[in-house]
């Protein structure tokens, strides 16, 4: 019933400026559930208030995880509220009593979506996934399936399935992370390569990575000192003069 | 010595192999030593503690070790004289100064000298005179001497006899001279003979071609054997030198080049995988280090800069040829092309008049190429090229020649960007290149000290200049295209400086973008200059490295461009596609995965579709599923659709698109779309091997197969479309389950003792060298501190002792004085009493 901008503003401050001062925070239940149901960024924001209600005021939310699961779409890696969202998801998935199929579905979906993510988000989500593996060792089949069927022609995981239990995530493998081992950013590639080895016991601390921005990453790389600068040895013959230059096919120098 | 003065430090255990220094101590001796030292230093200070006066040695040069004592004495004497000069002797006119030498008065010495002279007179004078006459009056010397000697030896013989003798003597002399001449000739003959032998030895080294000529030379120059010898030697060496140059034949050169390239490629692959970075660091044997020294590459590609064909510039052709060459199609029909290439190279070589060496080299190189292509008719070909060359030289534009001759041959490296710009302003591309080349040659780092820094600056100027050219209203891409070559050369010479300046540019650009995003929320695409810089990076540095100080930041920057910049106009789309292109080029060798690239291509496809509810895919950040800038690439006009021809996009379209007509806009849109299809095809080919290729390409495939209105497209576009779809479709789906790498088994704990090499006893082992050093330092400091404290304590004791003895001495003196006084008083008293008694008696 509110305009989108206002909605967002309200939801951003709800959890720390409004809810603690209300006599009966439970009155907000309706507001929050409606907001949660809208989808997109508003749902992400409503999550925070909802969490407080569930955590401190005994709110029972049916199909909470299913809803959370359906919130995961490609935009989560690109929106402004990424840090807040992943902080909460981390909280929700920290319980060790969650069924393996659910966590596996989350892992699989997150990594599938990571295929479109920018490097700063990847640097955050890969350790995140590693942590999930540490908490739920039953999910390790996703990265280690020694006697699995050879030569599958399809990924068993069903991306379109809304219900985590039916997504067949546990039958799949994390080929997405394997692909990311070829990522252009060296740190991402390194982080993804960690999943090839057996994980250490201690969880990574991702709180510092949540707020990582692209510019910070860039700055870090620019300031890194190099002992030597390797050079291109192929002779050049002008701006578009490389061998098989793609530019020469599509651009002219006029 | 005295056994009571010796203290023995008894050892509890005897340890084999340990040397002990301090098993016997001499406390008495060392104590007395210490006390002596203290009396010399501390006591002195103590005694002088309240004295401000200082004894100053003003003797001249007393502490100057450089002066000899004699000099010192002389100077001192001079000083003394100076001091005394004005004071006493003003009125003392008569008194002469007595001059001395070594403390003796000169007058006396003179006297002595006289005596000595007179003593040695008789003998010496005679001999001297004889010598003198011989030396000074040489003409009649023989005669006189004769006379003198005869006079001395036998006094009886008279003049006539002497005359006869004289004649005899003369005859004998002439005979002797003759003999001498003969012997000299003989020795000369001997020498020539020896020379002949030598010559024969050398002759084996010389080719058989020119023996006749050599003979002639020999005959002509016989009288001067030395010179001739020299010349022959030279000839010999020359002949020897030639074959050694020959040794490196074209094949060998080619092989060397190939080996070099192979090594470089292996190096690149290693860097691409990003393993063993440490090892890499340890042996920085990158090829460019060699190239720096001789400026070899510099010359080599300067020759490629220009090529004229029939009097006008011919670049494209050459490029093609180069490509052909690299593909190594060994076809007969290619010979002509190669000829052209050669001739062009020859020509450019001709142009840089200064560098003969380069000329030679180009010959060699062209030889090399021709050898590879067609070894048989090499000579023939060369002749041909020469002919062509001469023709072409004639054909060269006379204006150009004139202009070139105007250019000075030496240029100083410009100190500021303004001077640099003014240097290049108003010149043609060729002239600019020549200027740059000459600047580089004139201040090659091997020539002078500061040249390196200057040339490094020049690199920055060049980049700035390129940027300026790119941002002009009518960008001069042709010039940039040429200027890239000097940039490349400079970069090869100074990789560090080049990377620094490029990084600086990148940082600036990224910083600007960050500021804009903070203010406005979204960034806009940068100007053409930045795009050109990004392209230049790919030319200068290997983009396939796992990590590279320049390329990695460039990657990050481009990723930001594709994710953060808002797309509102057609120009933005073109710029975005340009960056996609860059991405593809950057990863073309390493095949790294770039999610942003796929996202952007998806977005471009998305905006080319009519508005409707998209299903089955989601576009991400810069693109929105709903919004105002949809349909940016949508073309509805049937006529435009039909009249469209695929054309290459001119780069300058980015700046001047607004002025074009609707139809042209539509055509550009379609070109962009075709471009996009091609990029999709290329990236599909590139990422084929990724395990989740299908997932990555899934949204694009859905869009292509379900939403793109293929039927409305013109025929050409359909071709592009189908080739892209085909590339996507015909990949097999194949998934193999992932398996973790096996852990290394942890060895069981065992009871056998661990054996460690003991390097030194009494030292803690198993710590790093640095740690050991630190510990040693700490210990040494402790020891020194203890020693210092002990010394101070002893000093204090010594001082206290001294003070005590002083006090005692003083007290003693006082007591003695009091006693004396009392004694004298008592005596007085006694006397007085005695007197009194006397008086009383009396």
From TrEMBL, chain A:
<keyword id="KW-0812">Transmembrane</keyword>
<feature type="domain" description="CCAAT-binding factor">
    <location>
        <begin position="43"/>
        <end position="192"/>
    </location>
</feature>
<dbReference type="InterPro" id="IPR027193">
    <property type="entry name" value="Noc4"/>
</dbReference>
<feature type="transmembrane region" description="Helical">
    <location>
        <begin position="31"/>
        <end position="54"/>
    </location>
</feature>
<dbReference type="GO" id="GO:0032040">
    <property type="term" value="C:small-subunit processome"/>
</dbReference>
<feature type="transmembrane region" description="Helical">
    <location>
        <begin position="85"/>
        <end position="107"/>
    </location>
</feature>
<dbReference type="GO" id="GO:0030692">
    <property type="term" value="C:Noc4p-Nop14p complex"/>
</dbReference>
<protein>
    <submittedName>
        <fullName>NOC4L protein</fullName>
    </submittedName>
</protein>
<dbReference type="Pfam" id="PF03914">
    <property type="entry name" value="CBF"/>
</dbReference>
<keyword id="KW-1133">Transmembrane helix</keyword>
<dbReference type="InterPro" id="IPR005612">
    <property type="entry name" value="CCAAT-binding_factor"/>
</dbReference>
<dbReference type="GO" id="GO:0042254">
    <property type="term" value="P:ribosome biogenesis"/>
</dbReference>
<comment type="similarity">
    <text>Belongs to the CBF/MAK21 family.</text>
</comment>
<keyword id="KW-0472">Membrane</keyword>
UniProtKB/TrEMBL annotation, chain B:
<dbReference type="GO" id="GO:0032040">
    <property type="term" value="C:small-subunit processome"/>
</dbReference>
<feature type="compositionally biased region" description="Basic and acidic residues">
    <location>
        <begin position="375"/>
        <end position="398"/>
    </location>
</feature>
<dbReference type="GO" id="GO:0030490">
    <property type="term" value="P:maturation of SSU-rRNA"/>
</dbReference>
<dbReference type="Pfam" id="PF04147">
    <property type="entry name" value="Nop14"/>
</dbReference>
<comment type="function">
    <text>Involved in nucleolar processing of pre-18S ribosomal RNA. Has a role in the nuclear export of 40S pre-ribosomal subunit to the cytoplasm.</text>
</comment>
<feature type="compositionally biased region" description="Basic and acidic residues">
    <location>
        <begin position="239"/>
        <end position="281"/>
    </location>
</feature>
<keyword id="KW-0539">Nucleus</keyword>
<feature type="region of interest" description="Disordered">
    <location>
        <begin position="239"/>
        <end position="401"/>
    </location>
</feature>
<dbReference type="InterPro" id="IPR007276">
    <property type="entry name" value="Nop14"/>
</dbReference>
<keyword id="KW-0698">rRNA processing</keyword>
<dbReference type="GO" id="GO:0030692">
    <property type="term" value="C:Noc4p-Nop14p complex"/>
</dbReference>
<feature type="compositionally biased region" description="Basic and acidic residues">
    <location>
        <begin position="297"/>
        <end position="315"/>
    </location>
</feature>
<keyword id="KW-0690">Ribosome biogenesis</keyword>
<feature type="compositionally biased region" description="Acidic residues">
    <location>
        <begin position="316"/>
        <end position="357"/>
    </location>
</feature>
<feature type="region of interest" description="Disordered">
    <location>
        <begin position="135"/>
        <end position="192"/>
    </location>
</feature>
<comment type="similarity">
    <text>Belongs to the NOP14 family.</text>
</comment>
<feature type="compositionally biased region" description="Acidic residues">
    <location>
        <begin position="365"/>
        <end position="374"/>
    </location>
</feature>
<feature type="compositionally biased region" description="Basic and acidic residues">
    <location>
        <begin position="158"/>
        <end position="192"/>
    </location>
</feature>
<protein>
    <submittedName>
        <fullName>NOP14 protein</fullName>
    </submittedName>
</protein>
């Amino acid at each position: 019933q509110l305009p989108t901008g206002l909605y967002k503003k309200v939801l951003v401050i709800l959890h720390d400026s409004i809810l603690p001062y209300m006599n009966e925070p439970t009155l907000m239940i309706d507001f929050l559930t409606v907001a949660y149901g809208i989808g997109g960024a508003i749902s992400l924001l409503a999550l925070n208030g909802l969490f407080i209600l569930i955590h401190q005021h005994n709110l029972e939310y049916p199909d909470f995880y299913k809803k959370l699961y359906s919130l995961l779409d490609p935009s989560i890696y690109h929106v402004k509220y990424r840090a807040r969202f992943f902080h909460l998801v981390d909280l929700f998935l920290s319980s060790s009593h969650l069924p393996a199929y659910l966590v596996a579905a989350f892992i699989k979906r997150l990594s599938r979506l990571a295929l479109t993510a920018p490097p700063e988000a990847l640097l955050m989500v890969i350790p995140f996934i590693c942590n999930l593996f540490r908490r739920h060792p039953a999910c390790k089949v996703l990265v280690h399936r020694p006697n699995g069927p050879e030569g599958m022609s399809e990924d068993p995981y069903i991306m379109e399935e809304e219900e985590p239990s039916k997504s067949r995530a546990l039958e799949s493998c994390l080929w997405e992370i394997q692909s990311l081992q070829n990522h252009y950013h060296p740190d991402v590639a390194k982080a993804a390569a960690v999943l090839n080895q057996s994980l250490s016991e201690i969880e990574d601390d991702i709180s510092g990575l949540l707020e990582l921005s692209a510019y910070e990453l860039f700055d870090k790389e620019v300031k890194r000192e190099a002992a030597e600068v390797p050079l291109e040895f192929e002779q050049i013959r002008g701006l578009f003069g490389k061998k098989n230059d793609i530019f020469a096919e599509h651009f002219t120098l006029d | 010595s005295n056994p009571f003065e010796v203290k023995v430090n008894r050892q509890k255990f005897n340890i084999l192999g340990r040397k002990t220094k301090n098993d016997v101590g001499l406390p008495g001796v060392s104590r007395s030593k210490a006390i002596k030292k203290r009396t010399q230093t501390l006591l002195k200070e103590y005694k002088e503690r309240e004295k401000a006066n200082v004894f100053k040695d003003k003797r001249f040069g007393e502490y100057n070790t450089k002066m000899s004592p004699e000099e010192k004495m002389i100077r001192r004497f001079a000083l003394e004289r100076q001091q005394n000069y004005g004071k006493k002797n003003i009125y003392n006119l008569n008194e002469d100064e007595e001059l001395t030498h070594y403390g003796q008065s000169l007058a006396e010495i003179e006297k002595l000298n006289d005596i000595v002279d007179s003593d040695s007179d008789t003998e010496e004078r005679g001999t001297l005179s004889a010598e003198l006459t011989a030396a000074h009056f040489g003409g009649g010397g023989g005669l006189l001497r004769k006379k003198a000697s005869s006079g001395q030896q036998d006094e009886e013989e008279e003049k006539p006899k002497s005359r006869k003798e004289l004649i005899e003597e003369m005859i004998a002399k002439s005979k002797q001279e003759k003999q001498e001449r003969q012997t000299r000739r003989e020795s000369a003959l001997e020498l020539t003979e020896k020379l002949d032998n030598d010559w024969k030895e050398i002759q084996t080294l010389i080719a058989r071609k020119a023996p006749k000529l050599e003979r002639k030379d020999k005959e002509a120059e016989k009288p001067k054997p030395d010179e001739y010898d020299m010349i022959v030697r030279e000839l010999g060496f020359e002949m020897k030198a030639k074959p050694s140059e020959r040794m490196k034949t074209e094949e060998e050169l080619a092989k060397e080049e190939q080996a070099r390239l192979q090594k470089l490629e292996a190096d690149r692959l290693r860097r691409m995988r990003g393993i063993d970075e440490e090892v890499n660091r340890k042996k920085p044997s990158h090829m460019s280090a060699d190239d720096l020294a001789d400026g070899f590459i510099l010359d080599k590609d300067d020759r490629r800069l220009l090529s004229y064909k029939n009097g006008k510039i011919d670049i494209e052709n050459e490029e093609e040829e180069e490509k052909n060459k690299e593909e190594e199609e060994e076809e007969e029909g290619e010979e002509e092309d190669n000829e052209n290439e050669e001739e062009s190279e020859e020509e450019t070589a001709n142009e840089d008049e200064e560098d003969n060496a380069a000329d030679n080299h180009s010959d060699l190189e062209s030889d090399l190429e021709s050898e590879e292509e067609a070894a048989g008719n090499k000579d023939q070909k060369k002749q041909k090229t020469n002919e062509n060359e001469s023709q072409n030289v004639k054909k060269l534009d006379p204006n150009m020649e004139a202009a070139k001759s105007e250019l000075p041959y030496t240029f100083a490296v410009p100190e500021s960007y303004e001077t640099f710009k003014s240097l290049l302003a108003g010149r043609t591309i060729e002239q600019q290149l020549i200027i740059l080349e000459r600047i580089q040659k004139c201040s090659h780092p091997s020539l002078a000290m500061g040249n390196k820094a200057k040339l490094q600056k020049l690199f920055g100027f060049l980049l700035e200049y390129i940027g300026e050219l790119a941002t002009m209203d009518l960008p001069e891409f042709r010039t940039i295209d040429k200027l890239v070559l000097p940039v490349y050369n400079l970069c090869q010479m100074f990789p560090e400086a080049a990377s620094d300046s490029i990084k600086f540019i990148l940082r600036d650009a990224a910083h600007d973008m960050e500021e804009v995003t903070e203010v406005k929320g979204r960034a806009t695409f940068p100007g053409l200059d930045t795009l050109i810089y990004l392209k230049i990076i790919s030319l200068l540095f290997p983009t396939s490295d796992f990590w590279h100080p320049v390329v990695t930041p460039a990657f990050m920057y481009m990723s930001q461009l594709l994710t953060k910049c808002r797309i509102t106009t057609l120009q933005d789309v073109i710029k975005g596609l340009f960056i996609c292109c860059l991405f593809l080029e950057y990863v073309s060798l390493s095949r790294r995965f770039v999610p942003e690239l796929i996202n952007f291509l998806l977005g471009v496809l998305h905006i080319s579709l009519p508005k409707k509810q998209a299903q089955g895919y989601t576009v991400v950040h810069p693109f929105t599923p709903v919004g105002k800038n949809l349909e940016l690439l949508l073309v509805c006009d049937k006529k435009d659709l039909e009249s469209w021809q695929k054309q290459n996009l001119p780069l300058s379209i980015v700046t001047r698109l607004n002025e074009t007509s609707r139809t042209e806009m539509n055509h550009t849109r379609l070109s962009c779309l075709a471009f996009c299809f091609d990029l999709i095809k290329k990236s599909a080919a590139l990422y084929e091997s990724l395990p989740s290729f299908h997932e990555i390409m899934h949204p694009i495939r859905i869009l292509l197969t379900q939403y793109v209105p293929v039927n409305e497209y013109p025929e050409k576009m359909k071709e592009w479309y189908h080739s892209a779809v085909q590339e996507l479709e015909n990949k097999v789906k194949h998934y193999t389950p992932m398996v973790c790498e096996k852990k290394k088994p942890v060895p069981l704990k065992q009871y056998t003792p661990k054996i460690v090499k003991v390097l030194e006893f009494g030292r803690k082992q198993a710590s790093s060298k640095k740690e050991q050093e630190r510990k040693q330092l700490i210990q040494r400091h402790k020891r020194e501190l203890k020693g210092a404290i002990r010394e101070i304590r002893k000093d204090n004791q010594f001082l206290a002792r001294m003070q005590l003895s002083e006090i005692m001495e003083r007290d003693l003196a006082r007591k003695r004085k009091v006693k004396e006084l009392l004694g004298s008083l008592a005596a007085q008293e006694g006397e007085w009493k005695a007197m009194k008694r006397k008086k009383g008696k009396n």
